[in-house]
Amino acid sequence: MKVSLHLSSPHDCGYFRDRQASTLFLDPKEKVNLPTYSQLLNIGFRRSGKLIYRPHCQKCNQCIPLRISTTKFTPNRSHKRILNKNKAVQYQLLNCGFSEKHFELYKRYLQARHPDGGMEKHTKLDYFESMIATEVRTMIIEFSLNRQLVAVSITDVLNNGLSAVYTFFDPQLSKKLSLGVFAIIKQIELAKSMNRGWLYLGYWIHNSQKMAYKSRFNAAQILKNGKWTDL
Prior knowledge:
This protein is an alpha+beta fold. The protein is built from six helices and 14 strands. It has two domains: about 5-65, no CATH class; about 65-230, Aminopeptidase (3-Layer(aba) Sandwich), CATH 3.40.630.30. The strands form three sheets. The protein has an eight-stranded mixed beta sheet. The protein has a four-stranded antiparallel beta sheet with strand order 1-4-6-5. A two-stranded antiparallel ribbon has the order 2-3. The mean pLDDT is about 90.
C-alpha cells in the first residue's frame, strides 16, 4: 500500500479544550480502492465524507482506534435488555444517498446531543459532504418503530469488516431504548452475517464518559503501538 499523506496545521482539539490537535489525512485527489481503504482502517484511519484521516498529535495519543470481533462478541446482560426493549424496531439496508427525513432526524439529534459542538448548524450541504459523500462502498441502515424513523447508521463495507461511520437517532427515545448501543449490536450482527470479522467503531478515549459505551463490548480490541490487542 502506497498513498500520499498530508499533515494538517495545529487546530483546536474536539475532545480536550485546552489542547491543540493535528490530523494526518490522505491526499483528497487519491482514488482509494477497497483493499487500500480496508488496510487504512486496519492501521487506525477513519472516514468523514471523502476525507480519510487519523489523529497525529505530537503531545497526545488519547484517541485510540477500537474495533469489535463479530465472531467473539456475545451480548452481556445490559445488551440483552436493550435488544429486548427494541424487539419491535425493524431495519432495512439502503444505498447511500440523501434523504430529507434522515437530514431532519440528524438535525434534531445534533441539537439535542451536541448543542455547542458546531455541527448543530449543519446545512443540507454540510450533511451531504460529511455523511453522504463517499467514494467507497457505503450503506445506510434505517431503523423504524411503528413505521416511524428512529435511527440511521451510515456504515462502510470493508474487506474484513464494517466501519460504523456515524449513527444518529431520535433524542426523545434515546434514554428509553438506548438506540445508539442497539445500532452497534445490529451492525455487529450484520457484519457477522456478511462473514466480516470486525466492526470498526472509530476512536475511544479512556475516561471519556461519552465514549465509555465502546469499552463495554466484551470482544473489543484497541490499536496501540501498531498492534491490535484485547481491551
